[in-house]
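One chain is below:
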Amino acid sequence: MPMSTEFPRVEARNLEGLGVRLPDAFTGARNVVIVAFQRKHQGLVDSWVPWLQEHASADPGLRFYEVPTIGRIWAPLRNMIDGGMAAAIRDPVVLQRTLTVYGDVSRLTRPLGIQSRSTIALIVVDGGGRVHWSGTGAFDVHTAEEIDTALQGI
């Protein structure tokens, strides 16, 4: 779906422990942001990684990020949760592009028009934080074509 909104300003932390502010942390001229809401969503996120890696390797202005959103109730366990994710991942590139957001998840869902947290959200964001497209779900060719079209328009 085409959009004309700004990515909300929220605090996050990458899995190397560096605090960042979204959307400022999205360093590409074109960015694909995958927002996950549940631990079981990792498989959906992973379904996009090969396609995104291939496109990013061919386009130096393209970056992609994984943004796990974790409710306020879990904030006291952030170090343990992030540490567990980091220990499982180990790859510095993945640690840097995984930006965890703790707290009121609606700070992301409401401004981005995300209706359901039952699947992942995919957001195309330009270098200035403007949202150009959003969709949901595991990798599929039709959605990938929509993302590709949105990226070409930036």
